[in-house]
Design goal:
With 296 residues, this protein is α+β, with helices and mostly antiparallel strands. It is built from 4 helices and 17 strands. The radius of gyration is 22 Å and the shape is globular.
Length: 296
């Protein structure tokens, strides 16, 4: 090889290598939907743990709470409702199942709600919500069972006057993993949100309890406590708001900014929920946004 030809040959090799890399990227991210793209990387919004998620638009706001104040319309502070569009103070499993949903998965007719966010006293309409379903920290994904039909849960402490455990209830900006006790100053590209983590262990008997909490519990180091031996998916619920910049003037309808909380009433199409748990969580897979597909 002459000295004059060597630079040209090296250039050809470099171009060929770059083309191979680009081709590989296209092969991974080209004609695939979000679910397959997420699965191919092994990463999802909740990291590498098995998971699936459902995106739900804001449905309506009302001073109702069918768990804490059932049958008493107007008795609660203002809530934002997501998922089932018919949720009100009288909602039950049988009432919700035949109704429509604001979720992109039309078989998720569960009800999700959280206290309304106020800015200078005026309600802020959320831009949407995301429900992530995953194993609790350290819990064996193969041990998880689906929620029973009609299970009710409350997460977060409405009455607290101080910071909560950020692993339970917190504020954040956009997709940032940084969780804080009070609304932060968020950039326009990553607006404000709240994140609530629900209990992941069930007593195996009750769908609700007098305090709406004691029938479920949180796992510890991957194990459910003796009184709540049934491992269930941990629901991570996020609400997103069109709020950026100075957080001054923000307050939850329940009062203050520390009392972040949320409620859940399981009214999923039960066969669909069981398939998602089996295919994604028990199967150890990172699934993307699910639709009306049958997962096996």
């Amino acid at each position: 090889m002459t000295a004059r030809l060597r630079p040209f040959i090296l250039l050809i090799l470099v171009v060929a290598a770059a083309a191979a890399v680009v081709g590989g990227v296209v092969a991974l991210t080209g004609p695939s939907d979000e679910a397959s793209a997420v699965s191919s990387s092994g990463l999802g919004p909740q990291g590498r743990v098995p998971q699936f998620k459902v995106e739900c638009a804001w449905s309506h706001s009302a001073p109702d709470d069918p768990i804490v104040h059932p049958g008493a319309p107007g008795r609660s502070h203002l809530h934002d409702f997501f998922g089932n569009v018919a949720t009100d103070a009288d909602s039950s499993l049988s009432a919700l199942l035949p109704e429509d949903t604001s979720c992109q998965n039309k078989l998720d007719t569960a009800a999700y709600w959280a206290p309304a966010l106020l800015q200078d006293g005026a309600p802020v309409i959320p831009t949407g919500s995301v429900a992530y379903y995953r194993p609790g920290p350290g819990v064996d994904p193969e041990a998880l069972g689906p929620y029973p039909p009609g299970l009710m849960m409350v997460a977060g402490d409405m009455a607290t006057v101080g910071p909560q455990d950020p692993g339970v209830a917190a504020w954040h900006c956009g997709a940032s993993p940084i969780l804080v006790a009070e609304p932060p100053t968020c950039p326009r590209t990553a607006p404000l949100g709240v994140r609530i983590a629900f209990p992941d262990c069930w007593d195996g008997e009750r769908l609700d309890s007098d305090d709406h909490r004691s029938h479920v519990a949180r796992s510890d180091e991957g194990h459910c406590p003796d009184g709540h031996p049934v491992a269930i998916p941990q629901l991570i619920f996020e609400v997103h708001y069109p709020v950026s910049g100075d957080p001054g003037g923000l307050e939850l309808a329940s009062g203050g900014v520390h009392g972040v909380h949320a409620d859940f009433l399981n009214a999923w199409d039960q066969d669909t929920l069981e398939r998602e748990v089996r295919a994604c969580l028990n199967g150890g897979k990172v699934c993307g946004v699910v639709s009306n597909r049958a997962t096996g």
